[in-house]
# Entry
Amino acid sequence: MIKTLFKKRSLLLSLLMLAAMVVAIQLYIERRYLEQVEEVQTQAVSELLGTIRYQLESELTNNLSLINGLAAFIASYPDFTATQFELYASTVLAREPALVNLAAAPGLVIRHIYPYEGNEAAIGLDYMRQPNQRADVLLAVQTGSMIIAGPLELVQGGTAFIGRAPVYVPDETAAPAAPREPGAPAAPAAPREPRLWGIVSAPILAATIYDNAGLMNLPADLMFAMRRPASSGGGEVFFGAPATFQNPAAVIMPISAGGSTWEIAAAPPVALLQGGTAIYLLRAGSFVVFLLLAVLLTLRHRQTESNLALKNIIFRNERFLRAVETVSQVGGWRWSDDLFTELSTQARDIMMLPRNDNVVDMTGFCFSLDTRSAELLSHYITQAVKLRQRIDQELELRRREGRVVWVHLKADVAELEDGRVELIGAIQDITQQKKVDQLIEYQANYDSLTGLPNRGLFQDRLHTALLHAQRRSTRIAVLFVDLDNFKSVNDNLGHDAGDELLVETAQRIQASIRAEDTVARYSGDEFVALLLDVFSASVVSRIADEIVSAMRLPFVLDGRQVYCSVSIGVAFYPDDGDSVDTLVIKADQAMYEVKKSGRNSWQFYTTAMQLESEQKHHLYNELVVALELNRLFVVYQPIVEAASGRVVGCEALVRWPLEDGGWIAPDIFIPIAEERGLINRIDLFVLLTSLRFLKELNAALPEPIALSVNVSPRLLHLRDDDAQDWLRTLEREKNVKVTIEITERVLVEDSGSAHEVLDQLHRAGVQIAIDDFGTGYSGLSYFSRFPVSSVKIDRSFVQDLGLRATETTLVETILLLASKLGIKVVAEGVETEKQAAFLRDNHCDYLQGYHISQPPVSYTHLRAHETGRNL
Ligand code: C2E
Ligand code: CA
Ligand code: CA
# Structure
């Protein structure tokens, strides 16, 4: 707004200046023109005036010559007669009509006059007595020549100049009778000197003179005047406009005739002096010129303004582009004939070029790069030019001095009019993005703790290796490495120590394998190794040996020496499998075998394992059918109060009878059900069945007994509908007192959800017992974290009671500890009275085992006791 106002103002100012200039020039030209006009006018007037002067002078002089003629006549015939005078005068007057009359005054008294008629009054007029003529007459006498006076009013009317001439005659007689001015010196007596006879005079009609001199026909607008000179007659103007003499442009000229002078003046007409139409035309012209210039100026101004606006837009666009370039780290470039003909600042920065070089030649630029970068770049450009193909490539530019930048190079190919090819492109610095990508890729593929490839990358590499091995008929080995006591290290020394142990383990495994092989962290404390081109199993056994021995060396964690061995299982391609999954599973199975047979060693996968796994698979299928056909059932083993022997509860145990009367032990099918995800359905079935049974039973008993059910760790994760149903059933159950038996594993591998479920059940009045207590991790910390109400000493300890000191002490300790913690103890697997006695003596709360009651085993037996009557 202010800007436009300012611009308007500047235009206005320019226009004003232009106007001032035009006016100034106009005034100058006008003045010069007027000066010229004046000069011409003055010239013309002067010329005219000169002519008039000449005319007047000659008119007057002509008439005077007549008077002089008369004077000469009289001088020759001083004694002329009246008739002679008349004759002479009539002849002269006839020739010169301007002359009014001719008079002769001998002795200065008029004696003759022609024509006589009308002039009779003049006869006898004595000049010396005429005050208005005396001076003129005396002057004529004194100068001896003719004097013209006037103009003056004639007695007989009209205005006339009067010419007077003295007449001298030879003095033959006496002294002149001429009167003398008083005081004038007496004329010296000279006998031969002519004597003044008198004067002759004649009025010359002014009108005729003027007419003859052309004064009557002067241009109408010409100013003209005539006067007596300022010195003599007082400057009185007697003809024309007196103002003429006051006109500064007037030309004044003297006229002299007959001894007198006058002045004539003429001035050019005012209109002419002001320049007249020419000036108006000039002014109009100037105005038109001004208008034209003003239009031009305005146009020019507008153009300048629009240019400025354009420049502004261009400038803004450029700045905008530059900002965008900087923000996006994208630069622009043009290439043709092996030259970068244009490079934006950003492009230069990205290409690590100085900002001032004008044109960058390609070879020079390539020379600053390392060979590979240069080759790639040249290749892309030549290909683009040759095939008329766009470039869209990511490229690593490495400069010779070591700086590296990742760029995204894009270009379109344009064909120029002369057939040459030009590339117009963009270059983007994607170094940061590459770094992020690399980081993401690293994070996606590598384990952050150990820096080893993770499970995903391992699987990829194994997959690729399998394809290679297939093609080249080579062998591959997969090692599954599991730390033996990692959990306890973690629990006892803390997670930092655990992490350190993992890192060190990774290093030891890595050090044991060959450079071309891969070690990966598979999960928590599991590692896998991929060994390529294994020609013989002995190579693998040597490597496995090395890993096991390396791991036997102590770790120093947190300043303490710690031992942590590994169990390794090995599977081969193509011997044990040809897919990623199979090979890993088989190596895992082999590892598991090592675990079972005492850990701290390695083993190849064997066909026995294969057989076992096949059997497992078969059993699983059977179990699915059995569940479906409702062939499973539940038996109940009583739990008695140690002191009184009173039955206080029972443990529900699932049974899978076979058609042939035999059965499959839960120890066999429960792990399979757990592995394959069937356990939750089984546990739900057991819970529903046993609750129904206990309600019936309790109805018949004087004192209700409690129910214990075994719970798989899986169930507590509540991942499926069965688990949800199970939880809801337990929560709603108000009539039967229920204890759930969980293993220590559940608590050690404390997942948030298990913890929550246990709390929830505890609040709902469900009791929690730790099953197989003593076999697992033996940590006691979880007692404070979980609402545990009882522990069940594992039957392996009970069976050794009194036989082995360690087990005996352990049972004693458990009982002591539990009583201190206010936790009830159930002894499982009590088979003898001796055991029962020992437990009673050591204040064990409850007993369970064949000694008290054996859960029914045979199918028929079970059927008969299903309702619990065997209790
Ligand atoms: P457990 O929880 O420790 O169950 C006690 C096992 O010890 C039962 O074996 C029982 O028959 C056996 N037993 C009882 N008294 C004696 C004795 O005096 N001497 C000896 N040698 N054994 C005795 P069973 O029924 O074969 O069950 C084995 C395991 O299967 C159970 O061990 C339990 O972990 C699991 N299991 C059984 N039923 C279920 C179930 O319904 N759900 C779940 N998740 N697991 C179950
Ligand atoms: Ca149990
Ligand atoms: Ca048990």
